Structure formats: C-alpha cells, structure tokens
Amino acid sequence: MAMSVYKGQIPFRAKGQTTCIHHRNRLLDFYCEKCQELACTKCLSSIHMSHTVCDLSEITPQNKQDILKFIDKFENIDLVQISQYITSTDSQLKKNLSRFEKLSIELRTQTNKLKEDLDRLTARTLPLYQQMEEDNTKLLQTYQQNLEIYSTQLKQQVQECKIALQRGSDIQIYDTGCEIQSSVTLPVKPTLGTASFSPNQTPQVHLKKAFGEVKTSVQCQGQALQGHDLSVESSAAQGSSPSQQNPTRRKEMTSPLYTLLHETKVLGKWKPQSFITSVCPTTDGQVWTSDSNDGTLSLLDRKSTVIHEVTHNTRITDISMSPTTNKLWVCDWENNITELMPGRLVLRFSTRETPLCICVTASNHVIVGMAKQISKFTSKGTFVHQLKVQGGL
What is the helix (H) or strand (E) element at residue 372, kind and residue range? Predict the structure, then answer.
C-alpha cells in the first residue's frame, strides 16, 4: 500500500537519492553533525549555515564498522537464537496437544465413576480445556510465524548490508547504516494458559470434591482472565439441610496477575524542561513525551535529559508505543494518525473525527478514541462546543 504524506510535511530524501532535496541537481557531499543529515555545497550557506559539517566520506569508515557489527551480531547470535526459539516452539505445540489430551482422558475416566450430576460439570470443563488448547495453539502458531518472518527480515537485511559493503556508494552505505539502527524487534514470547486435574479418591464426601479440582491460569500478553465457576447443585444437596446448601453461587476467581500495593511509592521525580501533555515509556527505560501546544515530541532519559526531539507541524493529542515494533504512534488535531520513522513522522491513515487518544495493541492494531465536535447555542445565544466521544479500531 503506497504511503501518503500528510499536508505540510517536510520533504525527505529517498533512499539512494544522491541529490539535495532543497537544491535540485546539487550533489550531497557533506554531512551536518548538528542536524544529522546530508547536505550539498549550497546548503552550507543556507540551511546548515554555521553548522559543523564534514565530508561524507569521513563518516563512511564508522558506518562500515556499524554495519559489520550488525552483521556479526545477527548472524552469529540473533539468527541462531531465533532458530532455537522456532524449534522450542514447535516442541511446545506438540506437548500442548499431548498434555490436554491426557487431561481430557483423566477427566473422562473420573467422570465415569460419578452419577448424572457430574455430567453437567464435565460438559462445562471439557470446553474449557478445548478452548485453552486452541488459545495456546493460536498463540504458539502466531509466535512461530512471527519468528519466521523476523528471521526472514533479518536475513534479507544482512544480505543488503553485505551488498552495500561490497559495491555500495557512500550514500548507499550511509542509508544502510541508518536502516540498521531502526531494525525490527524480536517478537514477544507468549505466556500460555496452564491447567491441571486432580481426581478425588473419596467421592462419597461431596459431589464437587468427587469430581475433582480444576485449576486454570490464562495469561495472554500480560492480562489475567477470571476463573470459571464449576459448581452445580447435586441431588444429594437438594435433600440436605439449609445450612448445608449454598443458596448463592459464588464464582471462584483466580489470583490476579498484579497485586496492588497498600500505598503508592514515588521512585523518582523531576521537573521537565517543557510542558507535557502525553507520556509513553520505552522498553529501555526512556520515555517519549509530547507537548500539544507546540507539537514537539521529546525522548527523555531517567534524568529528564532530552535525547532526541521531533517537531510536528500541528498540535498533538496523544502518543502510544507499539509493543511489537517499538515504534511511536501519534494522533493530532488535524485527524492524522502518524508513525515515527527515523527522523520524521509518516502518515498511516486519517480519521473522520478528531482523535483524542491512541493505543497500539500487542497485535499491532491501532485503537483510536475520537470525539465529534458539535456546535450549539444556549438559550441566551451563547456559542458553545460539545464533544461526542466515540471509538474506532
């Protein structure tokens, strides 16, 4: 799908382009250390005036070293590790099927020892195992596919690096060096649901105890799901005393994945250099912030030092980091949804209504909360605005 450019976007140089985007037919022979971009001779007296520049060929040795390190790392470490992950995942798929088949057999064996009331519990438990098996299979298959795609992308990128080193120009080597700094990330290994079945050896005590205890834990991408209530009213319970009966069915809940603290604890605080309207942490301990007043994106470290800044051409409403690609997504007041690429924001799609908030899921789906502005007048003739909030995926 061809990428469109949002209105007013600053032009950028295409990969392999040897001429200046600001001064046509001028060759790019210099590198501006301040702006971290290529420049021509005319740029030195205009756009990059008084900036520290050097010949493009002077930074080629360092770019070559970066490319060689990239090739060495991914060929000798990452690709080997990915191959091991793929093999391990394939083994987990087989164990997953075998385990739930065994659990189902044990469950049916125990059920055959019980009477009609236990059939209701069986009918409710078997689908649970089947659903968990299907969910685990989907998670593992998706993870395996993502690993294979990631492996293919890395191999292709390594091959491009080798070609650039063998017969690439300074421009091609520079572009290749920039690309390896924004390579894709390793897919997140899923957390599988687990289950166990413990047959009860004293069925005369209680019908539910005779059936056995079913424990499940379903944890998918950091979310803990609730347990399932497997209680039924047996014929024995119908004839028991009121004190022995359970008039209300209580759902058995699994322990939550996260436990709330008794009180909040401030780990650290600092005063930012600019006004912050949105905050989004990164996986390496840094944080992206945005200022809706001037459309500035800032990457800060733990000491609030600005590492990198990107200026947008309009006000920003919200930001979100993709947990899959680690790329920053931005929504703004001009209904644009953009993704931060190296040095620039690229339009991905637009919304009909104003996007107020954005969230990128582990499946790399973009969820946008939008608000429709409605103009109204009060009974006194005062002009007011109302926002009708709605969501979209």
Answer: strand 366-377
Q: How far apart are alpha carbons 192 and 212 in whole angstroms?
A: 23
Burial 92-118 (b: 16+ CB within 10 A, else e): bbeebeebbeebbeebeebbeebeebb
The two structure tokens encoding residue 198: 């413990």
What the block records as the tokens of 265 is 């604890």
Contact 56, 31 (CB under 8 A): yes
Query: What is the pTM assigned to this prediction?
Result: 0.35
Give CA–CA dist 143/326, Å, rounded.
17
Helix pair angle (170-180, 60-73), 10° resolution: 40
Query: Token digits for 328?
Result: 């920053």
- Dihedral over alpha carbons 256, 260, 262, 268 (to 10 degrees): 150
H, E, C per residue of 297-364: EEEECCCCCEEEEEECCCCEEEEEECCCCCCEEEEECCCEEEEEECCEEEEEEECCCEEEEEEECCCC
In a 10 Å sphere around its CB, with 0-12 CB exposed, 13-18 middle and 19+ buried, how is residue 223 labelled? exposed
Tens digits of residue pLDDT in 371-388: 765 433 333 434 333 444
Q: Which strand ranges, in their side-by-side order, compose the sheet holding 306-311?
A: 278-281, 287-291, 296-300, 306-311
